[in-house]
Amino acid sequence: MIASPPTTDRIQGYCAMCWSHCGSIAVKEDGRFVALEPDPSHPTGQALCAKGRAAPELVYNANRLLYPLKRTHPKGDPDPGWQRISWDEALDLTATAIRRLASESGPESVAFSVTSPAATAMSDSFAWVRRLMRTFGTPNMCFGVELCGFHRQFASRVTFGTGLPTQDFEQTGCMLLWGANPSTGYLSQATGAVAARARGARLVVVDPRRAGLAAKADLWLRVRPGTDGALALGIANCMIERAWYDHGFIRDWSNGPLLVRSDNGRLLTERDLSAEGSPQRYVAWDAVTQRPLVYDPVRVRYERDGADPALFGAYRIVTPAGEVVCQPAFDLYRALCQRYTSETVEAITWVPAAMIEQTARLLWESRPVTYAVWTGLEQHTNAAQSSRAVAMVYALTGSYDAPGGNVLLPQVPTADIAGEIPLAPEQRARALGIDERPLGPAGDEMVTSDDLYRAILEQRPYAVKGLVGFGANLLLGHADARRGREALAALDFFVHADLFMTPTAELADVVLPVASAFEREGLMVGFLVSAEAQSHVQLRPQVVEPPGEARSDTRIVFDLASKLGLGAHFWGGDVEAGYRHQLGPSGITLEALREHAGGVRVPLEPRYRKYAEQKDGSVAGFPTPTRKVEIYAETLLEHGYPPLPEYLEPAVSPVSQPSLAERYPLVLTCAKLPQFCHSQHRALPSLRRRVPDPEIDMHPSTAAERGIRPGDWVTVETPDGSMRARARLNESLHPSVASGQHGWWQACPEIGAEGYDALSPEGANYNLAISDAAVDPISGTSPLRSYLCQITRVD
Asked: What is the mean pLDDT of residues 682-695?
């Protein structure tokens, strides 16, 4: 008898395993998911990375969590005594425990932890988790924004008043990728950058490693890890000294002309000139009349038409309290940059002086410029001000919101799922870390793991006793893993939802099995990477049923909300009703999305330089205190931080810790592996075959000095711990730099690849060797990418 040919189904969707959300087609044969392919008809579907192509292996992995589990042995017991329970029992246990804690100690005593929505499939459910958190009443969500995302958004908000806008690769003349390697974590952005490069756009890459698009760059700047701020100031110095900057943009659209008082560092106001003047109006110096010039931020204009506000000079201003010397803010910025000559910056950053000047020239002559920054710029003790320094370099190009620059694209209107249920101000004020770092992530109810651990172990500023976790593998994703283990073990109650039993999940009281992105629907409104993609709306269909009793994160949120008595905020537990609410302002229905599996597009027309638009006789300006680009940020000054992006040496470096560097002579940094989603997916054979063991990159001369050969097992020791990895030689690295990998714990039995103890110095946990003793003063980020180490061969 002749066998029937297999039945093949091709299901349009998108891969949700990272921020890229690449358009894809899931292939099923006889009902089994066998392949994920790119969908060229989709605005992000030109390619798929190895992670996406391995999706069937993730779906059918034998080690997936299948059922809710309850711990029956104490946390100190090596055997947790996991017992299978029903979903009702698991959710009842969870709801009862966290309601009790909230009743006894306030809702802030229960924190949430969430894995990265940018680098995992948590993007499907992140907004719903935040809605639950706010409805419950806690201001404490730990998901690592201080490690990935905060600084680039913070720097752009402080400087331009908005988050970092989208890169316009289609029209750009020059791309600046600073600590960003989209080839490893943002494939649709990488596709756009490659297309722009092929079209003739220039490319500058700042990265300690020659990786990804750095191989295609006109200029690759091999910066010493953590010294990016000095490099940015050096580039800016060249641009200003050689007049390679947009003078008109800086004069007309920045607060560079506004005068700064030398006695108190504040912007001079009209009230300083006269008791009748307004403290909300600022003062510049008119180069035409040689008199003070009042600037009104409400109208975004100076008091005299045709005025020429000066950018340079020192002026003696008469006030009722006496004479005070003032300088334009831009002149103070220039003076700061002048301290960073190309030769000085070469000594700090190890980037050749000639290359610094070449970069300044290229950025100027190849405008418009679009720029991207990512985690390479973020995980340092000076990350916030370094990111500010890079944003100011970008401001000098005048490319903000211009064609070919970074553009504020229109968005499809939707309901703000999380934002429409704000926390009460008194609860927001209780976010962990907000008193120490009022401008940091805690202001948006996102707390650092360091602050979370302190609240659990030391009850400072109050005790956190419960944790609701959605995929956050804290012991592998955050610094100071031993302290993290101690903190998680000390919780009164910990519930964790995940695909696998991770080292973090092993410390929970209740573990919930999660469906993968291909076993659930997902709604995406706007695909971020371009104007075309931003207009795209798609409901990703479920490809296969989840294994066992696994549920989607969104389903878990809705079910837990109902058990907590919060179902009224979650449509009585009806996820589909929640999607309809989210889509409401767009006018798009679920029926239309299900009928058009490839998605629908909403006509959106980009507008440029919206800051210059006029309405009712007023100019839009920028959403900053001065309604201008903030060269000089009084917001920072008011909270005790430098208003200009001053450079600070990394806290653990050969310069700041010379005696320590005698024992630990190598600068230790790390980089994301393109094969894995942080600490996920090392159990998938096709991915693990590509990278079977953890590796540490070093220069061949560095290895030779230590008798290390390629593939040798080595110990990487820091002042705070150690881990093991295999040596890989990399000629692109500076001989004094070593680059490791985080996230190693999981075994892959199918190919005989071992797992690693996350808390053992004989294991491979990079973050076990990094301390939180020194963090960025604004954000609280850990120095995961700029530390000190020594490497020795394991005999």
From this structure: 97
The structure tokens listed for 619 are 């100019």
* CB-neighbour burial class of residue 197 (10 A; exposed 0-12, middle 13-18, buried 19+): middle
pTM of the model: 0.97
What is the end-to-end Cα distance of the chain in Å, rounded?
A: 61
Which structure tokens are listed for 413?
A: 């209107």
3 state SS for 328-352 = EHHHHHHHHHHCCCHHHHHHHHCCC
State yes or no: pLDDT of 3 exceeds 90.
no
Q: What is the DSSP letter of 189?
A: H
DSSP type of residue 268: P
Which domains, ranges and CATH numbers included, belong to the chain? Answer: 8-59 (2.20.25), 69-142+419-572 (3.40.50.740), 658-773 (2.40.40.20)
What lies within 8 Å, CB to CB, of 505 at 6+ separation is: 469, 473, 496, 498, 511
Mean predicted confidence (pLDDT) in 765-786? 97
The amino acid at residue 88 is: D
Q: Which of 438-442, 601-605, 714-718 has the lowest mean pLDDT?
A: 601-605
Give the separation between CA 418 and CA 413, rounded to whole angstroms.
15
Instruction: Give the integer Cα–Cα distance in Å for 540 and 561.
Output: 24
Pairing of strands 141-142, 110-114: parallel
The whole-angstrom separation of Cα 611 and Cα 690 is 48
What is the number of residues in the chain? 795
Nearest to 476 by CA among 766, 78, 144, 714: 766
Burial of 168: CB neighbours in 10 Å, binned 0-12, 13-18, 19+ = buried
pLDDT greater than 70 at residue 1: no
pLDDT attached to residue 19: 86
User: pLDDT tens digits, residue range 589-643?
Assistant: 999 999 999 999 999 999 999 999 998 888 999 999 999 999 999 999 999 999 9
Q: Over the chain, what is the mean pLDDT? A: 97
Q: What phi and psi, each to the nearest 5 degrees, are found at residue 94?
A: -65, -50
